[in-house]
Amino acid sequence: MDVPYLWKDPELKCPLWICGQTSLPLPPATQHQESSRASFASSVFNIMHAIMGSGILGLAYAMASTGIIVFSLLLLFVAFLAAYSVHLLLELCGQTERTSYEDIGFCAFKTTGKVMVAGAILIQNIGEFLGYTSGLSIVFMVYFAIVVIVKKWFIPCPLFNGTMNYVQNFNSDECKPKLLQISTKSAYAIPIMAFSFLCHTSVLPIYCELRRPSKSRMQKAVNIGITLSFSVYMLSALFGYLTFYGKVDSQLLHSYSQYLPRDTLIMSVRICILFSVLLTVPLINFPARKAIMLLFFSNRPFKWSHHIAVTLAIQTLIVLLAMYVPNIQNIFGVVGSTTSTALLFIYPGLFYLQISREPLKSLKKLQALGLLILGFLIGAISLPVIIITWLHNENVA
Q1: Closest to 167 (Cα-Cα) out of 154, 156, 176
Q2: Phi-psi region for residue 245, left (φ > 0), alpha (ψ -120 to 50) or beta?
Q3: Residue 107 domain-assigned?
Q4: Which domain holds residue 105?
Q5: Residue 290, phi then psi, degrees to nearest 5
Q6: Which of 202, 236, 275, 367 could form a disulfide linkage to 145, CB 3.0–4.6 angstroms apart?
Q7: 395 burial via Cβ count (<10 Å: 0-12, 13-18, 19+)
Q8: How confident is the model at residue 166 (pLDDT cuts 50, 70, 90)?
Q9: Alpha-carbon radius of gyration of the chain
Q10: Residues contacting 180, CB < 8 A, separation 6+
Q11: Are 51 and 45 spatial neighbours (Cβ–Cβ below 8 Å)?
């Protein structure tokens, strides 16, 4: 049975209101297609795979910069907002029948919206290139968290750097956890968390592959995935911080390498990272290359010369950034406060305000507006502080 639509634009064919309904079902699948779709458990796994990545390496530093209580509240807050912004994207998927973030941007602001999303995805994926993520990311992250918990009991405090002078000048406060800590480094906290919880570019394709797809079923999968990821993040950050306290490095593994340079478990984690990086290149190359193709070659036929040139350009850019931006803290900070914040907070709220036909004073639109404003505030406050701190540290060095 056909469903009558009211189209926003005859060319775009984006439905705004469907006979009093607020969502559209995904196209019905044949019995064979249904059997080949992902189970609920597989979808949860895919969501966790999309979430968990290199951001875990910077969370202990974020805890040291804010204190245990503030960090815990902020991490919980960002996790909740991540789940809610996914809810908005699922609503938009139903209203527009579009199944990718870029296409929803196109429905909202035509080419401008698509370019906004594609550009943000490109920069986000470059940031992920400099970190570590792959299909083994969940196994690696869980193993990493276990190693962090175990090593808490093998590294004494105060941390010994090989000189008796260090021990003689030891301050007992160095081994006391801070519940509340505010400094310029605190500006990195929410961007690192936003970087760590971003899964929104993968949610809609995962939704399309879900067996018996529905918004409530997909939202449940997202909520479980975010909750499990939150647990792993929280444990690794807490025990990493309680191991090194204020001396934790912005990349947690560097701290272990400094004090346990030949430890077997730490070496095994580094080997996991090596394989993770090797497997990451083709995975991250695809969305990054796709974003560039959408930005510059969307109206041209496919050519292998374009394909190869874009791939080489991406790899060259990554190598140059890795050489001249060696501190991963700066990557987390800048990418997290710009593209991660845009994809997680700003765009879902902005697109919902533009596409949905609900009254502006409706609860959902007010919540979307609040998410939009919050995203702008996070970026406007965090980014300048991060850049100033970065430049100051460069001058000091």
Answers
A1: 156
A2: left
A3: yes
A4: 39-159+179-396
A5: -60, -40
A6: 236
A7: exposed
A8: very low
A9: 22
A10: 66, 67, 69, 70
A11: no
Residues 347/105, Cβ–Cβ less than 8 Å: yes
Query: DSSP character for 132?
Result: -
Q: What is the pLDDT of residues 19-62, one digit of tens each?
A: 233 334 445 555 545 556 778 888 898 888 888 877 888 899 99
**Position 284 pLDDT exceeds 80:** no
Number of domains the chain is built from: 1
| Nearest-angstrom CA–CA distance, 291 and 285 | 10
Q: Give 377's pLDDT tier (boundaries 50, 70, 90).
A: very high
* Residue 317 within any structural domain of the chain: yes
C-beta of residue 40 within 8 angstroms of C-beta of residue 151: no
Q: Please count the residues of the chain.
A: 397
Inside any domain, residue 184? yes
Residues 6+ apart with CB under 8 A from 4: 18, 19
Report yes or no: 340 and 123 within 8 Å, Cβ to Cβ. Answer: no
DSSP reduced 3-state for 12: coil
98: its two tokens: 């579009």
**How far apart (Å, rounded) are the C-alpha atoms in residues 369 and 350?**
7
- Residue 359 tokens read as 């009254």
Domain CATH code at residue 365: 1.20.1740.10
Cα 345 to Cα 35, 160, 176, 227, distances in angstroms: 35, 42, 35, 18
pLDDT at 127: 67
Instruction: Using CA atoms of 141, 258, 189, 380 in order, give the dihedral in degrees to the nearest 10.
Output: -120
Q: Phi and psi at residue 21, in whole multiples of 5°?
A: -85, 155
Q: Which residues contact 23 (CB under 8 A, 6 or more apart)?
A: 91, 94, 95, 215
AA letter at 181: Q
**3 state SS of 18:** strand
Decide if 219 is inside a domain: yes
In the chain, the amino acid numbered 84 is Y
Q: 212 with 219: CB under 8 angstroms?
A: no
Nearest-5° Cα angle at 325, 291 to 146:
85
Query: Which tokens is 342 given?
Result: 């845009």
Nearest to 62 by CA among 154, 182, 161, 164: 182
Q: Which residue has the tokens 């040291």?
A: 64
202 vs 125: CA distance, rounded Å: 12
